[in-house]
Amino acid sequence: MKILLTGATGFIGKYVVEILEKKYSKENLIILSSKNVPGIKSIPALDYHFNKEYLKEEGCEDAEVLIHMGAYIPKAQNEANQISLTTQNIFSTQKLLDACDDLLIKKVIFISSVDVYENSEEIYTEQTLVSPATMYGWSKIYCEHMI
User: In what helix (H) or strand (E) does residue 63 lie, and over which residues does it extend?
Assistant: First the structure.
C-alpha cells in the first residue's frame, strides 16, 4: 500500500513518518513537501500549484492513502486571524483534493487542530463544542468539511 503524505517534515509529521517507515517501509511512502526527506521519495509541493497530471508524473498514481498534515500554522497570536495566511489552508487542501481526484486514494486522513474547539479548561473530547476563536481554527474546520 502506497501512502502520500503532506506535512511530513513538520513537528508531528516527522513522528508520523517514523511510525509509517517501521510499519510499511520507506518504499511505500511518498512525501509531498518543500523539503526532501532522506531515503523517502520526496516530490516538490510547489506551494500547492500543481494538478493531477503532476502527481501522476511524479509517481503518485498508485497511492491508496492520503495523510494530509501540511498546513499553515500561526507562529504568533497576531497571525491566527490574518485572512491571507489562514486561507492558504483552504486553498491548498482544495488543490490537493482536486489533484488526487484520479488517483487510487481510498482513505484520507486529515490532521486538524485543537483550535477548532472553543477555549476550555476541560479535557477536549469528540463532544467538545466546535467553536473556533480564530480564522486559523475556522480554516481547519472548513478543510474538515471539504474532506
Answer: strand 63-68
